[in-house]
Amino acid sequence: MTVPYEWMMTVHLFMHGDNYNLDALKEAVPKRSEWIERVQRQFEEVLRTRPVTVDWYIEHANVDLGDEETLYRYLQEVYDYVFRGGPWPVTEG
Fold first, then answer.
1. Tens digit of pLDDT per residue, the chain (93 long)?
2. What are the two backbone dihedrals, phi and then psi, of residue 91, each rounded to the nearest 5 degrees?
3. Which domain range does residue 29 map to?
4. 92 is a domain residue
């Protein structure tokens, strides 16, 4: 199973340990561009199918969340924050 391209780029641009900026991603959501809609669909796909491993995330985001349960709890928190107006993600690596 492969990681969707736009979602991977979202990790690099907004969720990387060196340039972490979820607020910038969240600010793009109300504009509902084709890109943000694709990212949201792909985020939902990643949460549903779980193709991201801890090692993949370390390599692409430079963040170690320890285990897959923690990783996916964190990704759900990010999704909720960005797309559903949820609280800031509290899970940390």
1. 689 998 999 999 999 988 899 999 999 999 889 999 999 999 999 999 999 999 999 999 999 999 999 999 999 999 999 999 999 999 875
2. -70, 130
3. 5-84
4. no
